[in-house]
Structure formats: structure tokens, C-alpha cells
Specification:
The complex is a heterodimer of chains A (149) and B (504). Chain A has a single domain, classed as D-Maltodextrin-Binding Protein, domain 2 (3-Layer(aba) Sandwich), CATH 3.40.190.10. In chain A, 47% of the residues lie in helices and 21% in strands. Chain B folds into 3 domains: 158 residues, 2-Layer Sandwich (Beta-Lactamase); 125 residues; 179 residues, 2-Layer Sandwich (Heat Shock Protein 90), CATH 3.30.565. Classes of the chains: A alpha/beta (149), B alpha+beta (504). Chains A and B meet through α3, α4, α5 and β8 of A and α1 and β3 of B.
Chain lengths: 149, 504
Amino acid sequence: MVRRSRALLLLGIGLWLGLARPAFAEDRLVLIVNAESRVTALTSIDVHKLFLGLTVVVSELRLHPFRNDADELMNRVFFQNIVSMSESVYDRRMLALTLQQGRTAPPVLHSTKEVLDALAEDPAAVSFAWAADVERDPRVKALRVLWRR
Amino acid sequence: MAPLKASITTRITLVVLGIHAVLLPALYFSLGIVVSNSFADLFIQNARTVSRNLAEQIESEAGDARRVVEILDLAMLHSESVYAELVDSGTSIRSSLNSPNLVWPGREDFEFETGTDYLYCIVLPVARAGHVAELRLGFDERPTADQIRLAMRGTFWALAAYLGVALTAAIIFGLRLSRTVVHLTRVARRIASGNYVESLRLGTSVRELHELGADLENMRGELVGVNERLRAEIGERERSETRRLELERRLQHRHRVETVGTLAGGIAHEINNALLPIMLLAESALEDSPSDSPARADLEQILSSARRAKEIVAKVLTFSREAGVAKLEAIDLPTVVNEALRLFKLLVPPTVEVRSDLAGVFRPVMADAALAVQLVMNLCTNGYQAMPHQAGVLTVALRNERVRLADEAEVPAGDYIALVVADNGHGMDAATLERIFEPFFTTREVGSGSGLGLAVVHGIAESFGATIVVDSEVGHGTTFKVYFPVAKTPATEPQPAPAAPGVL
């Protein structure tokens, strides 16, 4: 009876460790583009400008940013590490950009799948996603690490 | 009816306090959220801007560790950063301005005041020559937290001051409202107690109260009017009742006098009829009796007594107006009065001062001159006899008088010549006044008066259509006023007006 209970406990711990494995893995937010894109690298300044709605042209390709809003952490990282602005300031800046210059803010997509689909169809598209979500998708490629934990 | 609990002021104050007890905390916490978020947003924005600039500068300058330290130091000098470190390939490059006791907490913050160390931590990947380094920055949250607390403290006191002002205003408003209502209550109580003088108009700018006061004032005006009308009606009824009683009294008096007059007249006629053969036979017997007859003295005594009885009978008949129809004609009353006074002064001792006031223009009156003289003589004699010790002042006067309304039904309305005979004798009480015109009624000693003088005056006045008004007060004298109706025709024998008033 005691042996059976101990075995069940060990099995439970093993299962729990197996399921919880991704949580202990390193989280990396990577910048991604279409796999066929001519863009091979982007500086942090370019990324910053891109997601602030400013024009960024690389290899004669005008880049199209897509904001990935798949989860809360990604959203927080976006404001703190990519655009380096508070959410309200970013919103005001986007509003001013729209009203003063007629430009549009980067489209917001609410799932990584949508982001990957959008990037697969647009060679000039740029977005970001968790590395684990894009590693096995041949349609996109990662350019650089934007944030990691 | 709900029990009385609180005044208007207390209730308004409690309502204001209750409303603010709900609203102010909600407002305070809402403002707290707004203020905290604003300061936090500003703090985070600054921290992220600094982080971004610092990361870009480190990326753009591929300097050595010393240069990185300089950059980190500059960042700390120009921001609220208290910790700066670059971890490059396992090597830690720290700012020389880092606090020696501060250890990197190993976390990354995305919200303000997330930890207990008041440190906002940002970690940025920095591209360094083919690999990625890690920039660690820590920003002190305490100055911003202090600013938030200061702002909230100011907000608290501002709201407290507002609450104080609101309560003060509520109390003042309540007191003003209460004062107006108290004024209304006080005036209403006065009105209830019969005092209608105070106005109910309210000196208030509150429209509803002003209108209420105006309406109540109108009601008060109506009430005053109704009250005055009621008082007037009550007064009129009282006067009517008094007049009715007086008329009843006069009617009874008149009936009594007429009854007495009728009775006396009947008796007088019978006595007169009996006296006639007595006097004729006595005179005949006296003429037939010898001059030395002892019976003559008896017969003369019989005749004397019979004549005296005849005079009394004549007076009684005059009182009962059965002495014959008076010959009424328009006469000049001052002339008649003068003649009567001339005769009267021959009868009274010098201790009686007779004053006459007959000056003026008087229209003629309808009367019998001889009876009028008798009337004046009788009134003057009555006044003289009323004087104690046969001394005093007797005043005789004539007045033009116009009675517009029947004065207590005593004198009918019309134009009159009033003969006034006043003495300062001992006067009469009400009981005596009631009976003065009854024949044989006298207050004098038995044998000193017949009690027919005023009865004759009454009979003569009645025959003239005149009215007698008597005013007497015990100890002060009596005034007779005989109202002679003015004749429509001129006097038959115009006489000059008598001399100015003087003492006869």
C-alpha cells in the first residue's frame, strides 16, 4: 500500500515536471519576417521606428509592421522593450501620427497564428513572437532577439 | 404623523453630510487612481525612454568596458536610475555610481511599485559585436511615490475643505430657511390668538417661500376683512338690540302714559261733570244767601275748593290732550320763550339766576302760543323747584338742529328748533326719569306740588308733535330738550329776534 502510494506520488511529480517544462524554458521574444524576405537584419532603432509608425526601408523594401498582441506578457514587453513607451504615451503618439500625418498605426493581431499567416503572405511584413511558436514554422524566420527571460 | 425628530437645519445638514459621505470617498479614490496612474505613467515613460536611449547608445558605440561605465554613469546622473549594469558574455559591467549595497533583484517590472524595494527594473537586450548583451537598469520609485502621496494628501485636504464649506453653506441655508418658517409659525400663532397686525410677507429670495408668504398674506388680509365685517355686524346687532330695547322701553312708557292719560282724562271728565253743578249751585246759594249768613263762609269755601279742583281737572285734561284741540299755527318761538321768561322771572327769587341764549335766526314752528308759554313756564318751574335751597342757575336756550338719522329712534329725522331748559339742581336717577311725565308723580313733599307740571308739558308737546329728550345726572342737574318741528309756512306774526344772551 505504501509502495503503491509512493509510486503514484513519483508518477505525479514526473508528470507535473513534464507538463511544466515549458515554463522553466527560456522565453525569447524574437523579431520575425517572411522566410523569403530580403531583410536579414534590423537594428533596434529600426525596430523602434517601425513600430512607432515611421517609415523604414531595407533592401528597397518598405517594411510593414504587425503588432502581436497574443498574450499579456508580450503586450508588456512590446511597450517596455520594443517601443519603450508607456501605453498611454504610445496611444497618444499613434493618434497624433494619424491625425497630423495621415499615417496608420501598426495593425494589431491577437494571435500568433494570425501573425504568422500575415507574414507568410507579405514579404515586407515584420512582427514578433515567442521563439517557441515560430521555430517549427518554415514560412518565417527570426532576425533577432527582442527580449528574453 | 411622523414623530418630530430634527429641525430643518439639522435635516439639511445631515442630508448634505450623507451625500458627501458617499460621494467624497468615491471621488477621493477616483482621484487617487487618476493621480497614481498619471504619475506612474510619467515615471514609466521616463524610465523606458532612458532605457531605450541608453541601449541605443551602447549599441552604437562598440567601446570597451570603461566607455560603457561612462555611459552608464551619465545615464544615472541624468535620470532617476539608481542601478545600471551591462552583462556582456557573462561579464558584468556596472556603473560606478551604483549603490554598493544594492543587489540586482533578478526581475523585470512592467508596472509601477510592483516590489517592496521601490525599484523599477528594466532589462533590455543590447546587440554587441555578434552577440546579445543584457542591459539592466533600476529606477527609484520612491520620489514618484512620495509625489503621489503628497498629491493625495493635498487632494484629501482640498476635499475636506470642500466638505467644510458645503456643511457651512448647508447650515447657513438651513438657518435662513428655518428662520423664514419660524417667522411664519410665529405670525400664524399670533393670528390664531387674534392679532392680525403683523404682515406675513417674507423677505426671502426663495421663490416658493416668497409665494407661500404672499398667499398667506392674502389669506391674512381676507381674515382681517372677515373679522372686521364680523365685528361690524356684531356691533350693529348690539346697537340694534339696544335700540330695540330702548324702543320697547319707550313704547311701554308711552302706553303707560297714554293709559294713565286716558284714565285720568275719563276721571277728570267725570269729576268735571260733578264739579259743574257743585259750583253752579254753590254760586247760586251764595248769591241767594244774606250777607250776614253764617253759611256764606262755607259756600265760599266750597266754591274755592271746587275752583281748585276744576284747575286740577283742567291740567289733567291738558295732559290727556282732551282739553280741546290745540290751535296749531306757525309761531316765532323766541318771542314765546321771551314772554314766558318775562313772566317766570316774576315768580322766582333773585337767588335763581336765569340765563337765556335765544340769539339767532330761527324758523317758525307749528304750535299754540299760549300752550307753548305754559310749556316753557312749567319746564322752568320744574328746574327752579329742583334746585336745592331754591338757588342755582337756570339756562334757557334755542338751537337750530337737524337730525339726519333717527337718534336711537328718540327724535325722528328732520329740521327742529330745540328748546333747551337746563338746571344745575340735584338731578334724577333712572327710575325717576321713567316716571316724570306721569300725572301726580312727584318727588317733592306731599302737599308742596301737584305732580302735574311735567305731565302737562308732555301733553302740550305731544299736541305740537314735538319730542322731549331728558338728560339728567344725579347731583349735576337736568336738561330738557324739546324738539319743535319746523313749520313749512312763515310765522303769522313775525317778531324780531330777542336780544343777545344775558342774565335775566
